[in-house]
Design a protein that fits this description.
The protein is of the alpha/beta class and 875 residues long. Helix content is 52%, strand content 15%. α27 packs antiparallel against α28.
């Protein structure tokens, strides 16, 4: 499984590189070997071949040959930044992106930008250019590689502060080695081709010693060999099964140096593995939280995966190692005893684990310092000590009374119980106070000679020491238990927060509600004020809520463009007041979260960052669900619209063709009869022409009415209508057909007036009657009734025909839905759909069911509206 993941990851990384620009690094062992010269020479060659090459930033350092090569190439103006009253020039990334050349020359990759720049480091500027698809040529000295920083410092005695992460170097598309023998480099230095004359002597006596240059040259060559080996392994990982799958984990349970992190990183690179830096949380590190966060942030900046574990040492390490396929554990022991203890625990619980010891110094924590740290973070009030003092005094009074009846050896047990009780309830400090006070009271009031600290039997010293040790040990155990309990409570709180977020987000019906739920959780549980900006289809970001002041729209645009975090607590414009996080859905930016953190550790600390990322992940999942549901609804609507379109075309092709064919045949026959003066036959034929025309009129009327009703163009003109008028008006439309049926009209006496639109209610009843006439045989009985039912009025049409074959009668009201005999009956299935729409427009309900006596029944249930009384209402 791990081999498959490695293959997939290698393939994804290779695909990602094709989308980015190509990075070519000119690597040298020291300044002056000719990196910039080689880079500019190649730039001229590429320009002569027709490629678009520009210079983003090149510093000639006063070298005439380098300055000569700059001429002839287009220069992008530098960005001026004012800092502490001085004007500095930096790389103008925005101008280069707007110019968008094929290749840009950017010198001094490890340079630190002036405060106020978008990025802290120039290599981050280069990353932005690469993400825009621009190819970059840059120069780098070996001492600027982060993993080699401490080695270079030991070799040369010079501490380099400007470095780049190794993973940036590893991702370069090409690295060209610019080499020069040490003797030739020293000669160039003495000739003034590297530095000005005033610094030549200082450089030659320090950094440019021949021994230093030889060591730097060896490091450079080794780095190139390591890079080639890494590329071979990466290329071999695609399409082949990797033979090894090492995972390295560096355990950090005390404050260590950055050199240890770099050494661990070098080992991970040599094994082509990812480094995991894991912090073992403990009470001894409570005072070093800030320093520990900086170490973990440093490891993360180098590409290591960081995490914080809480719990018993071997078990939490074992769980993490199993979950992340760890094969090698790196230890930085505080002492030989600490190393033996850790090795024993690891070998016991993980016998197949390889252990490597790194010989680096750590901040040792003695037992006394651990106790002090425990005391410092144990909060006790004055009342706790007062209660302990009073309780000790009361027990002493009781023991003075019992001392005449119970031996002194048994009386001491009362003080032991008191010490244990206080340790459990109030912690270590009060427990030690109680232990000392108990020893003093026992010596002063119980042991002879009384009222004196002198003791007659030296063995009582052992008793006194026992009480004190029991108090300290029990309190220490209780304190440790409380510490674990507090950590468990913190994890439980985080779990509860995530559960609450998951539960609330599951109820969100749209993205606004989802954003509001996360906003409330961040404010209530983490004291983080937030707001969200949604990315629109036109490329703009819409502010959905205004909870924060002075939000930087420039940073909003930056996150929208680059789709990565920025602002407070990050490496991009960290001086900003807020943290800006992209919310990605299906590889596209959906929104931007703007958070007002209380302190930077809320994002840089692994535990806090993991909680925030988990909340945002839940938000992303909720938004994906909402987007997916919206897309599904749109798809279903499109499918339904397409189905209705096909149904309409099929129905119209059938129901228009039939009457048109009949009309054409009747017209031809009518013409023939008229030509021979057969008036009687012509008259009969003309009636069929009229019937077919009426069918077409009803068909087109239904289509037009349905379109008007669904578009909302119809405005109701409600009037007070008697039932007799409604039924009579509808039956007039079928006076020729009704004579072939038995039509019964039943209007309840004193039936209230219907409050409805006369035209629409007539259309509704006409469609119901038309449906009854079409689906029953001639001679059938059709009943039309109007009655009052409580606060409702009902208008029903029933017949004694075949009724409904399908029990789900509500489907009959769907557009283009036909009955079981649709092949023999004309129509396109819009009549009942129009009736249902008219009923809804009147706040009424139209029901369909099989009548108890047989046949179909349609009942319109309308609200009973009391008609206002006027004297001339019947005038």
């Amino acid at each position: 499984m791990s081999d498959t993941k490695a293959n997939a990851r290698a393939l994804l990384e290779k695909q990602a590189l094709h989308k980015r620009g190509h990075l070519k690094i000119f690597l040298g062992m020291a300044p002056g070997v000719g990196k910039t010269f080689a880079m500019l020479t190649e730039a001229h060659e590429l320009r002569d071949k027709g490629l678009d090459v520009v210079i983003g930033l090149v510093d000639t350092h006063g070298r005439a040959d380098t300055a000569a090569l700059v001429e002839g190439l287009e220069l992008i103006s530098r960005k001026k930044i004012i800092y502490e009253g001085h004007c500095f020039e930096e790389l103008d990334v925005k101008a280069i992106i707007q110019r968008h050349p094929a290749i840009v020359i950017v010198d001094e990759m490890a340079h630190s930008n002036v405060p106020g720049s978008v990025h802290k480091k120039r290599w981050q500027d280069i990353e932005e250019l690469l993400n825009e698809g621009i190819n970059v040529y840059t120069a780098l000295n070996i001492q600027h590689l982060e993993s080699l920083n401490d080695i270079v410092s030991r070799v040369t005695g010079v501490k380099v502060s400007e470095t780049i992460p190794d993973n940036v170097f590893d991702r370069a598309s090409e690295v060209r080695l610019v080499d020069l023998p040490p003797d030739d480099l020293i000669e160039r230095l003495n000739e003034g081709k590297i530095y000005l004359n005033e610094v030549i002597r200082h450089a030659s006596d320090n950094y440019f010693k021949k021994s230093n240059l030889m060591a730097l040259r060896e490091l450079t060559l080794r780095s190139m060999v390591g890079r080639v080996d890494l590329q071979v392994k990466r290329n071999g990982a695609i399409g082949k099964t990797s033979s090894t799958g090492y995972g390295l984990m560096l355990l950090i349970d005390s404050i260590t140096s950055q050199e240890a992190i770099r050494e661990a990183l070098r080992m991970a690179r040599a094994m082509s593995s990812r480094l995991h830096c894991v912090c073992i949380d403990s009470a001894a590190l409570l005072d070093d939280k800030q320093e520990l966060s900086e170490i973990m942030a440093f490891a993360s900046s180098l590409g290591a995966k960081t995490d914080a574990l809480t719990g018993d040492f071997p078990y939490c390490i074992k769980d993490y190692a199993n979950a992340n396929n760890i094969n090698v554990i790196l230890l930085i022991p505080q002492s030989q005893r600490d190393l033996v203890k850790k090795r024993r625990l690891i070998n016991t619980h993980m016998p197949n684990m390889s252990i490597i010891t790194l010989p680096y110094s750590v901040k040792k924590v003695s037992i006394v310092q651990k106790l002090i740290a425990t005391f410092k973070h144990t909060v006790n009030g004055v009342n706790d000590f007062v209660f302990s003092f009073i309780l000790t005094g009361l027990i002493t009074l009781l023991l003075v009374y019992l001392s005449d009846y119970i031996k002194e050896a048994n009386l001491i047990m009362f003080y032991l119980l008191l010490t244990l009780f206080v340790a459990v309830k109030y912690g270590m400090i009060v427990s030690i106070f109680t232990s000392v006070l108990s020893v003093a009271c026992f010596d002063l009031f119980i042991v002879n000679p009384r009222l004196s600290f002198a003791i007659a039997d030296i063995e009582y010293l052992i008793t006194f020491a026992t009480i004190l040790v029991v108090g300290i040990v029990s309190a220490r155990l209780v304190t440790h238990s409380r510490y674990l309990s507090n950590n468990a409570s913190m994890r439980e709180k985080q779990t509860r927060i995530l559960y609450t977020a998951s539960k609330n987000l599951s109820k969100a019906m749209d993205d606004i509600e989802a954003f509001r739920q996360i906003q409330n959780i961040l404010k209530e549980h983490l004291n983080i004020v937030s707001e969200f900006w949604k990315s629109s289809s036109d490329g703009q970001c819409i502010r959905l809520m205004t909870e924060l002041k002075n939000v930087d729209k420039g940073l909003i645009n930056y996150v929208q463009t680059h789709k990565k975090e920025a602002g407070f607590g990050t490496y991009t414009l960290s001086q900003s007041r807020y943290l800006y996080l992209p919310i990605m859905i299906s590889n596209r930016l959906y929104a931007i979260a703007v958070l007002e953190l209380q302190f930077a550790q809320q994002w840089s600390d692994p535990v806090n960052s993991r909680l925030l990322q988990a909340l945002l992940t839940l938000l992303k999942q909720c938004l994906e669900k909402i987007v997916s549901e919206e897309e599904s609804k749109t798809l279903l609507m499109n499918i339904e619209a397409e189905r209705m379109r096909h149904t309409l075309i099929q129905s119209l092709s059938h129901d228009l063709k039939t009457p048109l064919s009949a009309l054409m045949a009747s017209a031809e026959l009518l013409s023939n009869k008229l030509s021979v003066n057969d008036i009687k036959e012509a008259y009969e034929i003309s009636k069929s022409v009229v019937d077919d025309s009426k069918r077409m009129v009803r068909l087109m009327s239904n289509l037009l009415d349905m379109a008007k009703l669904q578009s909302g163009q119809v405005v109701l003109n409600k009037q007070w209508l008697p039932a007799q008028e409604i039924i009579g008006s509808a039956l007039k439309n079928f006076k020729d057909i009704a004579c072939d049926y038995t039509v019964n009209i039943d209007i309840e006496p004193d039936c209230p007036f219907f409050y409805a639109d006369p035209i629409l209610i007539d259309r509704l009843l006409s469609n119901l009657l038309d449906n009854a006439f079409k689906y029953t045989n001639k001679g059938s009985c059709i009943n039309v009734e109007a009655k009052e039912r409580g606060d409702k009025l009902t208008l029903s049409v029933t017949d004694n025909g075949p009724g409904f074959a399908d029990n789900n009668t509500q489907k009959l009201f769907d557009p283009f839905r036909r009955g079981g005999r649709e092949s023999k009956i004309s129509g396109i299935g819009l009549g009942l759909a129009i009736c249902k729409t008219i009923a809804r427009a009147h706040d009424s309900e139209l029901l369909a069911f099989n009548a108890p006596e047989g046949g179909a029944a349609f009942v319109l249930v309308m609200p009973l509206v009391t008609m206002p009384y006027t004297e001339d209402i019947f005038m």
